[in-house]
Amino acid sequence: MTQSQVTLGAYNLDASDPHHLAEFWSQLTGGDPQPGGNSVYIAPAGAHGFGMFIQPSDSPRPDRQSSHLDLTVPWGQREQEVDRAVSLGAVVRWHVLDEYPHVQWTTLADPEGNLFCIAEHPPTP
């Protein structure tokens, strides 16, 4: 059996204002926004980054979000990155700091209410 070559090409989001939301996400991830009509593709920031595609939607946001991004930062940098995300327009929703020994995270909402997490994992001995 061959090993899978599956990687994340892009994470897709619907937005009432794709260009405004792309500004937030490009600043947060360091990606390069590339507008195309009403949608915006955000190219990955470097070899280990990921792309995002933000497209227009005029439908109401569902009450329950079925998926979200878990972003990982080096141990000890979660609070700093959460503060940076908030300065860009995110809102802190909750923290999970003591439930699991292998991770702690903060769940936030982007400017349009899409949930995402900023997590850190302790160094392995």
From TrEMBL:
InterPro entries: Glyas_Bleomycin-R_OHBP_Dase (IPR029068), Glyoxalase_6 (IPR041581). This is VOC family protein. CDD domains: VOC. The lineage of its organism: Bacteria, Bacillati, Actinomycetota, Actinomycetes, Micrococcales. Residues 13-118 form the Glyoxalase-like domain.
